[in-house]
Each structure stands twice: as C-alpha cells, then as structure tokens.
Amino acid sequence: MKLLYRPSLISLIIDLLILVLSVVIVFEWFPLTTQNPYEKYDGAGLLYFGLWAVFSYLFGRFRPLHTQKYLKVSFKLVYTTLLVFLVSWAISFRFYGGTYSIYVIFTYTTVIFGVYMAFYMLYFALLYAVEFEEDPHRAVEVRENAQVRQATPLDEESYRELCEAIVQHSGTKTMLALNEKFDLRSGNTLVNFSSGFLDIKAKQNYKFSTIIQLERLNNLRGINTLFATVNAKLPDNGLFVCCFESKSTRKKRILSKYPPGFNYMFYVVDFIFKRFMPKVFLTRRLYYDITKGKNRILSKPEVMGRLYCCGYEVVNEKKIGKLTYVTARRIKQPESKTKKSYGPLIKLRRMGKDREIFEVFKMRTMHPYSEYLQAYIYERNSLQEGGKFNKDIRVTTLGRFMRKYWLDELPMIFNLLMGDMKIVGVRPLSAHYFSLYSEELQNLRVKFKPGLLPPFYADMPKTMDEIQASEMKYLRQCEKHGCFVTDIKYFVLILTNIFIKKARSA
Question: What is the pLDDT of residues 321-361, one digit of tens each?
Fold first, then answer.
C-alpha cells in the first residue's frame, strides 16, 4: 500500500461530519460528570481529531470510497479506532494524570465506530444493490451452423442403465415423466446428474437437442454460469430442463415436519440463514464458506427470471413430488451481465422525457430477476383492476405491504433531487409497459417529466383504458394550462384521495 496519496475531499468532509456528530451524541445524550464537557474536552478533542486524521491517512481511509471494498474499509476503520483509542488513553494517563475520563474516550470511540459502520452498511448496500457484475466464465460467442447434429441412438442396455440412474437419483415418477416428454433413447438427449457445469462444458457444441439437469438448482452455486454454459451448447431452439424446490414448497415441508410452534421458529431461522444471508453482501461470503452453496432457498420467480436473463423462454413447468421441473427453450444469447447483487435498494430503467432512459431508485418489493418476467406474467395473467399485473407472483409478501403504503417509492426522492422527475406527473414506465400504451399517449407522455404522484390517484381509474384516459386528460391540461397550474390542481386532488378517501397503491 502506498502511504503517499491525495485524500478525497468527499472522504474528508464525511469524516469531519461523523466526528462532529459523534461529539454531539456523546456530550448531549450520555451522562457525564462535568457540566461543561465542550470546554473541558476542547484540547483533548483537538488531540483526538489530530490522531484520527494521522492514522486514517496512514491506513488509506481517505481514498475515494467507491474505489474500495466493504471488508477492507471496515478493517481500516477497526485499526484506526483501536490505535486512536490506545494512544489517546496513553497520552491522557501519561501527561494529564488521568484528567480526561477513560469512560469518555471509550464511549466517543465506540460511537464513532458505530456511526461509521452504519454509514458503510448503507453506502455499500446502495452501491452493491444497483451495480452489475460481469460473469467471468463466459465470453461473447459467435454461433455458426447452430443446428443439432444427429447422433447414434442408445442401445437397449445403455437406455436401461440411464433409466435406472434417473430412478436412483430422482425417483420413478421423474423417470416416467421425462420418458413421456423426451426421447431418452436418442443420442441427442443429455442427462446431467452432477452439480457443476464443467461436465456440460466439456461436451461438443450442438450435439444435444435437449439437456436435462437433474441435480436441483438449490444445490448449485453458479446457477447463471450453468444456464449460460447450457445455452452455448444447445442448438437454436434447443430445450433445457432443470428442477428446484420452491420457497413455498419448502415452507410447507418444514411446517408439516415439525411440531406446531417449533415449526415456525425453525422456518424463520432457516429462511434467514438460507434465503436472507446469501442475498446480503455483508453475509454472502460467510454463508457460502459454511454451506458451499448447498440447499439454498429459491423462489419460482427467481428461477424463471434467471432463465429469461440467460436467453431462454419457459415453455412448460410441472410439479413432481416436492420439486418443480421447468422446460425452457433456448431463443437467444444470455444477457451480457448475468451476475447481480440484490439488496434492499434497486434502480430500474424507465422511460423519461424525450424518450430518454433513466434509472429510478426504489425499495425492492420483488424476488430477484423479476424484471425479466414482465412479458411472461402479462402473457399468462394480463392486467388486473388498476393497471397492475394480475396474480403477480414476482411480488414478495413484504413487498405487497410496502407497495400498499408507497414505502417502496420513497427512494425516488433521489430522482426528484437529480431532476429526472417532478412531484406530480405520469408514472415512469418500463419499456414493456410503455409499449402497451396507445401511440398517441406515448408521444404525449415523453413531452413531460414523469412524477412521484401520478394522476392515477386523482381519478382512481380501474381498467387499462381508464388509466390511459386519465393520463391523457392530465397531459392535455399540462399542454393547455402549463405544468405548474395543472400540477397544483392535481396535487390537491391526490392528497384529498389519499388522506380523506384513503386511496392506496394497487
């Protein structure tokens, strides 16, 4: 590590603000024996600040925060606070005869550490939640003559051994179901029993028209890598079959397995350890070190979304025993970025003024990879009253509560401050949802900025046609009377519906 570097101005400002905030917290909220702590500890405070600046610089804490990693900055903070505390206490004891209370020094150091850790958690949660990570296992592929290559069918003995292996691994019902849907005798069908992707990667391209992965996805750490590898091996329109235990099935299994009362306690612990920990950047590495990625909890929307993200479309799904089997068709190349970090904050690409795409900040209310399932949900369930997707399996239980009271939209205040949105205006829509609108309304929508409070809450429309009519009326008034006058009028109507008529988000 180079000791000489130019400190980041933003890092210095943040550091100063946290130091001052910690002083206020300790002197105002904690019980102290002295009546004038600011006067008594002014000299000691300057010494402490000086030591803090020196050790912070030496440990590289003043480098730009976005260029560093969470664990590294956390360890730098630990080293800094520990050394500053020890040196401050030693100086106080040696030169001031213990005039300055060790309790005050310890409390102040602890408060600084706590405030900084809270700031780091918030900062990196936001950073990691919205950043994409490149998949290191896959490069851009050029597909030529991606048609299946005919193979020699299995002889009777090989076919029988394959069926026996399927029965031993997944059961008789699975073997019969696969035999009914796919030609297992064909040399163009590959059945993979392992949990890794290397066995598939070693196979010849386009040799297999169907690849069946029988090890459940819950036990696979690199799910996207597996999906991308299979995508590369399949010919155009080739089929991929995978299986998993869904979150809802796992819940039912646990609740029925253990005695009442204890079953819910076990379920909560299981959910936190095997669903929450793998998704949070603070605990992800610890989780994988302990479990090696085995027996994770996966939701149905996440698996479906990963498939669409990796270039497939789902053509069939079937429940066999406690596992859900999904058949997907390879239709395109995987997304260029297939590994994502999922935290409580997300940003979504939305259509803005002049058809410019901008990113909207929101609290996460859906399962991971749900953004790839808009067309899938719409084709199967269409829209419900209020314009939302009908039976939207992508939304979590907590997410439904947050949506009802608009808690998920609070981070959009950042978009308001950045000038991407205004207080009153039409909803910022995804490209797919935007395409469902009439061409006339699309052209009118992009003339104005979207807003935090849509005209929906002024008119409370129920159908898609009524929603479009409501937005058209609002936008026409903006053209005729100007946005300022129109927005004030709608702002009053919206607040009246929300606080008096108890309107809630769909």
Answer: 999 999 999 999 987 654 555 667 788 889 999 999 999 98
**Which residue intervals of 96-233 are DSSP H helices?**
102-130, 156-170, 172-181, 198-201, 223-233
Q: How many CB atoms lie within 10 A of CB 345?
A: 18
- Give the CA count within 13 Å in the CB-facing half-sphere of 129: 19
Q: How far apart are CA 3 and CA 6, in angstroms?
A: 10
Helix (H, G, I), strand (E, B) or coil at 40: helix
Q: How far apart are alpha carbons 105 and 38 in whole angstroms?
A: 14
b/e map 190-202, b = 16+ CB within 10 Å: bbbeebebeebee
Output the pLDDT for position 132. 45
Reading the block at residue 469, the tokens are 């009519």
Compute the distance between CA of residue 73 and CA of residue 65 in angstroms, rounded to an integer.
8
**pLDDT for the residue numbered 137:** 45
Domains of the chain: 9-130 (no CATH), 156-246+298-339 (3.40.50.150), 344-499 (no CATH)
Per-residue 3-state assignment (H helix, E strand, C coil) for 334-387: CCCCCEECCCCEEEEEEECHHHCEEEEEEECCECCCHHHHHHHHHHHHCECCCC
Burial code (b: 16+ CB inside 10 Å, e: under 16) for 393-418 equals bbbbeebeebbeebbbbebbebbeee
pLDDT in tens, 405-431: 888 888 899 899 889 999 999 999 988
Alpha carbon distance 342, 281 (integer Å): 8
- Do the Cβ atoms of 48 and 108 come closer than 8 Å? yes
Alpha carbons within 13 angstroms on the beta-carbon side of residue 92 total: 23
pTM exceeding the 0.70 threshold for the entire prediction = no
